[in-house]
Specification:
The structure holds 3 protein chains of 3 kinds. By secondary structure, chain A is an alpha/beta fold. Chain A is globular, with a radius of gyration of 24 Å. Chain C folds into 2 domains: 1-128, Ubiquitin-like (UB roll), CATH 3.10.20; 143-280, Single Sheet (N-terminal domain of TfIIb), CATH 2.20.25. In chain C, 55% of the residues are buried. The chains are: A alpha/beta, B alpha/beta, C alpha+beta. Strand 3 (64-66) of chain A pairs antiparallel with strand 2 (36-38) of chain B.
Amino acid sequence: MFGAGGGTSSYTEVEQTDVVLLWGSNAREAHPIYFHHLLKGLDNGARMYAVDPRRTSSAKFADAWLGLNVGTDIALANAVGREIIAAGLHDTDFIAHSTQGFDDYEAAVEQYTLDRAEEITGVPAHAIAEMAHDYASADTAQILWTLGITEHHNAVENVLSLCNLALLTGHVGRWGSGLVPLRGQNNVQGGGDMGALPNKFPGFQDVEDPVSLAKFETAYNMSLPDKPGLHLTLMFEAMEQGAIKGLYVIGENPADSEADVAHARKLLDGLDILVVQDILMTRTAEMADVVLPAAVGWAESEGTVTSSERRVQRVRAAVPPPGEARQDTDIIGDLAKRLGVDWGDPTPEDLWDELRSLSPMHAGMSWDRLESEGGLQWPCMDEDDPGSIFLHGWLWADDLEGRDPAPFSVCHHEGPKEQLSDEFPLRLTTGRALDSYNTGVQSGGYASPIRYGDGIDMNPADARQLGICDGDRVRMCSPRGSVETCVRIQPDIPRGLTFTTFHFPELVDINQLTNPEWDLRSGTAEFKAAAVRIERMASTHVNNPVPDVDSATEFADG
Amino acid sequence: MADLFIGDDKADEIEIVAVAAAVGTPTAVVRESERLVYGGIHRRRDHRHLLLPALHGLQNAKGWISPGGLNHVCEVLQVPPAEAYGVATFYEMFRLDEPELGPETTHVTHVCVDAACQIADNEDLIAELEARGAHVHRSPCLGQCERAPAQFHQGIGRHDSVPADTVEVAVRIPQQGDPSLRLLRNVGVVDPTSLDAYRANGGYRALGEAIRMGPVAVCAAVADSGLSGRGGAAFPTGIKWRAVAAEQGRPKHVVANCDESEPGTFKDRVVMEQDPFAVIESLTLAGFATGAENGWIYIRGEYPLATARLENAVSQAREAGLLGADAAGSGHRFDIEIRRGAGAYICGEETALFASLEGFRGEPRSKPPFPTTHGLFREPTAINNPETLINALDIVLNGPEAYRRRGTERSPGTKLLCLSGRVSKPGLYEVEFGTTLGEVLELAGPLTGSGTLAAVLMGGAAGSFVGPDALDMPLTLEDTRERGTTLGSGVVMAFTDEIDMTDVAVRIAEFFRNESCGQCVPCRVGTVRQHETMVQIQAKGSLSAQRRSLVDDIAEVMVDASICGLGHTAASAINSAMALGLLPEGGHDDDH
Amino acid sequence: MTITEVSVNLTINGQAVSVPEGTSIHKACESAGIETPTLCWAENLTPVNACRVCVVEVEGSRALVPSCARAVEDQMVVQTDSPRVRHSRKMVLEFLGSSVDLSQATDLAEWMRHYGADPDRYDQPDLPAERISEEPKIQDDLYIRDYDKCVLCYKCVEACGDDAQHTFAIAVSGRGFDARISTEFDTVLPDSACVYCGNCIGVCPTGAIQFKTEFDMRAAGEWRPDEQEVTTTVCSFCGVGCNLELHTQDDRIVKVTSPADHSVTHGHLCIKGRFGWQYVQPPTRR
């Protein structure tokens, strides 16, 4: 947001904070050990608001769960902002000193009254006000989010609308307060840090910045592209346009994980050459012309990964890779040799030192320190730097350490791209289950007694309306395709919403239904909001019908 | 709150109604609408203390706690089922398996198997009851030793009751009406169900005087009186009250420890049944003196009459403005909640009592920290038993000097003693500290049966036996300590030489084995090993020197390393019985 | 955050010791080079001081004091090897040895020798000492629970509950010698609230709760701890960065733990970190 992409706060801080807004995150299942830190915070007296379309297992720990309509996060955030300003709870000193663009922001959120927000989001107005007041009045407060915020066509605006709240209240840049995106994979953070972004060199140095470019060109003694490359979603567009004819996929399974996956498979099929480097024969690997078997990064290799609190930690080889599997670095080095460049035979430490020489925020993290100090948090500028517990402390410095004040962003509510209709009257959203991971390639390898498996969660009232009973087989259709699955009646999911995980593509190919509309800035598709229709398949009910109770009374009793 | 996972078993209508009657409509989770639910850790914590009342509701409704009933309670109070199950299985009065009871069964008959009843032919009673088709449960001491063998009816679908309570007893206490009585002066004289009668006999004058004096002066008077705790530990009450009064933390609590469970003890029961307003007044006074706004009464589950009398007293006091926002015009908020225990000796230990009241297993906590800073709900708490509390009324009304005129310098005042065993006039007596054991036994009349006095159990199962040579012992804290025994909770139980003391020792050992909470190893295993040794004596007729040293080894670790007083005292009575030669010794092991 | 450290001076076995305020006696002993046996204590759990094997003698205190839970006080005089302490520690170990199977509690065996504990002396030919006597519960592919080995240290309950996982799938039920770790109504684990984080296994000192992999290998006589290596790495299943200790034997992962002193996990993991490694090795990969 205000520069380098990373969560501002350390895990220990959430143990001491006063108010937590858990927004679009089911951390209890998706980030269980982070949730332990959060639980310590709750045990220490922190109040938590969970903002999520579903009353998730995380939301059940919250003092209040606000069940908003899918894709209405900006409307809710803006209403919270407006209410904070209206109640005079914003930090005017901080705003004046450390931010810019407040007036525009204030004007933009003016229309998001509590009543209007209730209309858009479905969350009772008084609860929005309660959350706004609690967040703004707290000594320390954090906003935590995950893919519920980012897997939307307007992901970046969603994030910015939350950042606005922190700027409004001064809940950033100091111990206990912050903005914390929880990373979904073990090295999403590290990948970004290392420059695995189309527009960045390692250390978030911009490829379009001539100074950075010159530094890297000098170091590598060659000219480098000065324009951003393509992110995954653009690559698929390029494949569609025939601009990309060959693809080298390392450790990714797009043939299962892409939104509107049937279409994605078609594009992969149409490539001239598909090279897949992976540890397992994924669906994508099955389609490949060449498969390069690789070592498992965290158990068969030496290196580092970076966590959601910007902590760089060592991974180490515990077992040898089986058969012909080789280290990623060796494969890439050999490939480079075939392409005419000899990078020698660097050790992981050699590679790390190369990074340190080019990425200032990693400069202080010697291999020895990473070994002995149990990881270090960037930025860590030199070997005397203990690393950074939280980011953006400069916002509180008298001179802002010479930086520009942090900007408010004007964001407006749009809602999901795919509107509900008579033909597709239900909202489908997807997410994770505790014991599984992504497309299940790895987590399918053990016999979990709590496997979620095949199935779609539905509100009892919706199910009743469609004559569906718990366990019935159904066909679920979106404008892009249809899948078969069975229904689980779930009172914790509001009417109009359905939910399933994406872990079992072999059972339910759910990404046949999801919406590939994507965010222009992040390239993330709108996995969280498709419009669907559900039809009962078999004529016999598996279980007894849902008792015909007025759904209003179901929520009346306590 | 946890990942609340409730199984498929559902409660039936009877159970749902019973739980609602017990705990009302809790707000541990509030589903305000389809899009807004209030819940979470803090609400869950605030409701946990309702678990024990809810379990009582289930047990009473069906005669057991069914999986569906437990699930319902867990849902309503947001308690994880494994935890609720752990709590329910802690208590003697709760059943977790479906009993084989006929549909017409209205109660289970508990018959006491502890010493006073053991030597009063309780087995004959049990046989007779069983022959009549009663469902008999062998229970630890029921606190009715003066009317041994004791019974208690645990109701199913109706109130619990004690058969002896329905019998009109003309003389409630042997000393009834004696003008020298201080603590028992109202017993049998003043209608225990009427606030007006209590006030007409001087009730609530002490509280009025306390309000006039102010909290500091009240604490000073109690300290100056030399009053010490009457539950057994004899901690100075004034020091305790001052410590809580000095605590700035809020809220603060005063707790009446009415979980009288020490075998042989029934004094607090008589006070609560016959003079309940004195308990309420003195607890209010303690609240005023310590600055506590919450009063709690934790009363053992086997005392239905005392519970009813206290409930009545609280409601009359509340109606009269003696409890509430401005209790008795003190300008101080104070009210009292009554909670029933469910059959666990350990819950008489103050920290175990807190845990139980809070809705957890009644497991003692390590001290320090002490209750004065970390008591009920880990908040500052003064906890006293009824006998201690009612002493304060006299102290405030008449001043510490007058109070000290009775008793001895180091044990001022009077003491309630529970006389039972082979005496012809068993019952509750009030005597000045310093009265000798012989004089007390004389009060209770000649021994019954044809034997001669062999031993007296002082202070209950946690106390010790003394021999006939101790009849000259003045009953004071200092003299009993000097003679290696204790006044404890005021038990004086007489045994004659007709009684097989090995059987008594086996039962005492079994009592501790059954009542150990199981938390610490020395007590959990030590009480079992001790019991096994006593069973060996019973089987072999004597104890070898080798086994004898094992008994000493077990005793030493229980005394030294147990968490709480239960373990510390579990070997005490048995050791004293051995020292007095009451158990056969001198055999040989055939195994070593 | 920085905490102002105030030093406390005490004497342990006649030796002057100075430690920061709030330090436990146990930690103070450690800093003075004095080893203390522990069972229910763990770095990553709140002390429950139930086992009493760590008791010490503190001058002025009538009973012995659990060193794991009691904080040092200025001028405290502590004895860790007095006859009373030795007796209590020996008795606690004997009591446990006479009640449960301690064969996998390797640390305890050494202490039992040290204190001369003789658990067999409670048995009489005609009256054997009562034991816990439970059959192993094997209810899924990940865990086994063998309460014949359970010393009721409460660690698993703490890890499942307030100290880490907040799932409360297991609790202590019953009372006294009959107390057991149990789900509600002894429901099988897959039907309980259990989420298979394995944090109970991570803290169990006696093998009463165990990975099924370890249990099976032990049963087959293939469990060889002396040949095992431990490699610390980072879990791959989300972005939290949990440290994993991969225990390997014959180049295969045989179980996974986490370091108790690491700031990310404090020794605790989730089901994926604890059990998700199985795809790494054959038959999944060849």
